[in-house]
Each structure stands twice: as structure tokens, then as C-alpha cells.
Design brief:
Layout (H helix, E strand, L loop, with lengths): L1 H29 L5 H24 L9 H23 L1 H4 L11 H30 L8 H28 L3 H9 L2 H4 L13 H5 L3 H13 L10 H28 L1
Helix pairs in contact: 1-5, 2-3, 2-5, 3-5, 3-6, 3-10, 5-6, 6-10, 6-11, 10-11
Length: 264
């Protein structure tokens, strides 16, 4: 009994050390040993926001919300980029750490958790830096609702972790799923309300668009940035529930087949 109690106490410590070691390994391999890797991680969304700002400011007098193009498109593109980048990274967690999973002290959950934490923190940092820079450069008088924005980030992280975990299994079970997922995911950039407001979409397409969980994330983020914007269509139950359902299925399937995936 005492040995069982001691093992139970040391398990969280061992798991924490393993996850931290995996995070440090990925930081070194993905972003390099200097700041240049993080510079490019920040430069990519900056370039996307700048391009959207230039193109649409030439075609339109004002964005759909507020009067600053850069802030409007950043409020949509940054949460989408957080979800998209994180879900792709989590979806390749087992493949990335496959050699380490042969060690008894490293589990597939450790690999997924490490990738989720590292990339979620990185994307959240990018979001804060870019939004802060836009507000400062354009001297925008804005009252940010930090709890609302944090809720949007939490929804994006859970959705990305759930979709990515499920994809960890599907990439192995269905060899063609990698290409299928890329094709299915391409319209998401247009269908996630980055360029427009959900309320501007005519019926019946608005009803169809509601089932895209990223739409709820973007709407919640804009609620936190624009004090006068009230997106009544945002459903926390659907946004968080969709992510939890994918996470549950992914962990269920991986729990049964992770050894087959590692040994293949």
C-alpha cells in the first residue's frame, strides 16, 4: 500500500519532467537555439495581416467592424492561425516523438501534452505581441476585455488539441487522410469569418456556417476586442463541446492502438 501511494505521488512529477524535456527538445528542433526561429513564427502572421490590410483597404472604405483594417483582420486571423498551427502540430505529435515512445517513461499522452503546451504558449505570445503592436502603432483607443479574449484562446486551444489528437489516430488508420484533411481544411480560411462578420452572411448560409467551431472562436475574440460588439451566435457549449468530443475520441483510439502506431 505504501509503495502504491509513493508511486502515485511521484507520477505527476515524473510526467512533468518528461513533458518539459519533450518541450525543450521541440524548442531546439523547431525554433532553433536562437531568437531567429521565433522571429519567423511572428513574421508569418504579421505578413498575413499586412497583406489583408493593404488589399482590403484599397477596395473598401472601412472594415465590417470598427475603423481600423489591421485590427479587424488580426482579430480574425490570429485566433484562426492559433487553431490551425496548433492542430497541425498536435496531429503529428506521435510521429515527431516516435523514437522516444519506445522508452517506458514516455507515453503518447506526454508527447501530445508537450506539443500542445509549447505551441499554445507560442501562438498566444504571437497573438499578444501582434495585437499590442497594432494598437500601439495606430494609437487605437480600445477597451480590451481580457477574460473574453482568454476564453477565445482557451476554446481555440481545446479545439486544436482535440482535432490534432484525433488526427494522430486517423493519419495512421487512413493513409490517405493526410491529403484529405488538407483538402477539407483549405476552405476554413474563408469560412471562419476572418474577412467578414458572421451577421453579414445571408441565410441559409449563415445557419450552415454556424457549425464551423472556429467561427465561434473568432466571434468571441472580437467580442473581447470590440466593446460594442455582441456576437449572440457564439455558443461556448458547441465550441468547447466539439473540442472535448474530438479529444475524447482521439485519446480513446490512441489508448487502444498507440503501440501499433509506434511499432509500425
Amino acid at each position: 500500500m505504501e509503495q502504491t501511494s509513493t508511486a502515485a505521488r511521484t507520477l505527476p512529477i515524473r510526467t512533468g519532467r518528461t513533458v518539459m524535456a519533450l518541450m525543450l527538445r521541440e524548442m531546439s528542433s523547431t525554433y532553433g537555439r536562437n531568437a531567429a526561429g521565433y522571429f519567423w513564427a511572428i513574421a508569418e502572421p504579421i505578413g498575413g495581416v499586412a497583406l489583408l490590410t493593404i488589399v482590403f483597404s484599397l477596395a473598401l472604405r472601412s472594415p465590417s467592424l470598427g475603423d481600423n483594417f489591421a485590427l479587424f483582420y488580426a482579430s480574425g486571423m490570429l485566433p484562426f492561425s492559433l487553431y490551425n498551427d496548433l492542430s497541425n502540430k498536435v496531429g503529428r505529435s506521435i510521429g515527431f516523438s516516435k523514437q522516444l515512445l519506445f522508452y517506458p517513461g514516455v507515453t503518447f499522452v506526454d508527447a501530445i501534452l508537450a506539443r500542445t503546451l509549447l505551441n499554445a504558449l507560442t501562438q498566444a505570445m504571437i497573438l499578444v505581441i501582434i495585437l499590442g503592436a497594432i494598437i500601439w502603432i495606430y494609437d487605437i483607443n480600445v477597451i480590451l476585455d481580457i477574460p473574453a479574449m482568454t476564453l477565445a484562446v482557451g476554446m481555440a486551444v481545446l479545439l486544436a488539441a482535440g482535432v490534432g489528437t484525433l488526427n494522430c489516430y486517423l493519419y495512421w488508420r487512413l493513409p490517405a487522410w493526410n491529403r484529405i484533411w488538407v483538402i477539407l481544411n483549405r476552405p476554413m480560411f474563408i469560412m471562419s469569418c476572418i474577412f467578414f462578420l458572421f451577421e453579414d452572411v445571408p441565410q441559409p448560409f449563415q445557419d450552415y456556417l454556424w457549425f464551423n467551431p472556429v467561427v465561434h472562436i473568432v466571434g468571441q475574440m472580437r467580442r473581447g476586442i470590440y466593446a460594442t460588439y455582441e456576437p449572440d451566435y457564439v455558443s461556448f457549449g458547441y465550441g468547447f463541446g466539439f473540442g472535448l468530443a474530438c479529444l475524447f475520441l482521439g485519446l480513446l483510439f490512441l489508448g487502444r492502438h498507440h503501440r501499433d502506431i509506434v511499432n509500425e
